Amino acid sequence: MIRPLSEYQQCYQEIKIIGRGQFGIVYLIQEKSTLKEFAAKKINGECSNTELDILLKLKHPNIINVYECFKDQKSIIIIMDYCQKGDLWNMIQYRILEGKNRGYTQKVIEQWLVQLLMGLACIHENNVIHRDLKSSNILIKEDGQLKIADFGVAKILSEDKMAKTITGSPFYLSPEISQGQDYTYSSDIWSLGCILFEMCTLKRAFDGDQFDQVLNKIQQRKLQQEILIQDQIDPTISDTRTYTSELVNLIQSLLNVDPSKRPTAKELLRSSYIAKIMLQSFEKKSVKQKDIQKIGQVTMMQKKAHEKYQKQMSYVKQLLGNSQDSINAQSQVCDTMFTKKQTSI
């Protein structure tokens, strides 16, 4: 809903500045009538309707949600989700300052990976290319839910068209953008690979003191370091986090210099690896219902929990489709569940 800018202060109280970007300032605000907290992005001067149009078009749990906006001829204020934990880049920096010099655990990275893929798949399916995907544009709510944000330079692509404008943070630019070539949705996939690299190493994938140095490393794919794979290093090394070959190979596929060889977000969601993560996540949530089970009978709470679980599983299977990889993954998870039950008897 778009309202006159003059009504903004009647509805909301500004608390503090929580972010500054190239195109505006973000405030933590409180709705006066309900005392609920939101984020307000203020864009001053000449502003395009593109970001607002895209945000109103995209409705997904892993994309920042717009509730309403206030506008006049020269500026606009967008009311959005407030993400209490801030952005992923700052979380990584806090982790380093606290002396936690190892990357996030594989379990955490996998859960965040699935959320980012689901959000990115929705963005691309709506013919939108983000063009500035980076860890500082990944916001995190109090419960750990990720939100893709800041669509200030996003672009809606018409069918079979490609973008040409060089835009975005230099550390996350794909090789094709850095070389001034036309590009499409796969450039966002490259940026996702850079974000995952940061989660694993707490370092940027490509860094340098000067812009030209960064571009040269991107074009030659000179990573700051390699992500270590389990069982391929000295097991006595305890100060370095290691990951499975499945996760490392996935990140490497996202950082393929050839954009045509990078998988799409939708393809990854249908892969065996991601399917297992999603299915096991829902299966683990259902295990907690043992705490409310009574001997000899099924309680109403357990029955409701089971119904909710069945709906979740139905949704996941619908998302994954009927590819052979998805079927294999579902079968593996079911086999694991059956083995656990047999062992516990």
Provide a descriptive summary of the structure in words:
With 345 residues, the protein is an alpha+beta fold. It folds into 3 domains: 2-80, Phosphorylase Kinase, domain 1 (2-Layer Sandwich); 88-269, Transferase(Phosphotransferase) domain 1 (Transferase(Phosphotransferase), domain 1, Orthogonal Bundle), CATH 1.10.510; 275-344, no CATH class. 42% of the residues lie in helices and 14% in strands. It has helices at 8-11, 50-57, 88-97, 106-125, 175-178, 186-201, 211-220, 245-254, 265-269, 272-287, 300-320, 324-344, and strands at residues 2-4, 12-21, 24-31, 37-43, 66-71, 76-80, 128-129, 138-140, 146-148, 155-156. The strands form 3 sheets. Strands 1-5-6-4-3-2 form a 6-stranded mixed sheet. A two-stranded antiparallel sheet has the order 7-10. Strand 5 and strand 6 (76-80) form a beta hairpin. Helix 10 (272-287) packs antiparallel against helix 11. The protein starts with a strand and ends with a helix.
Q: Roughly how much helix do the residues carry, as a percent range?
A: 40-55%
What form results from the Cα inertia axes? globular
Structural class: alpha+beta
| CATH hierarchy: architecture of the largest domain | Orthogonal Bundle
Beta-strand content bin: 5-15%
Rg to the nearest angstrom? 22 Å
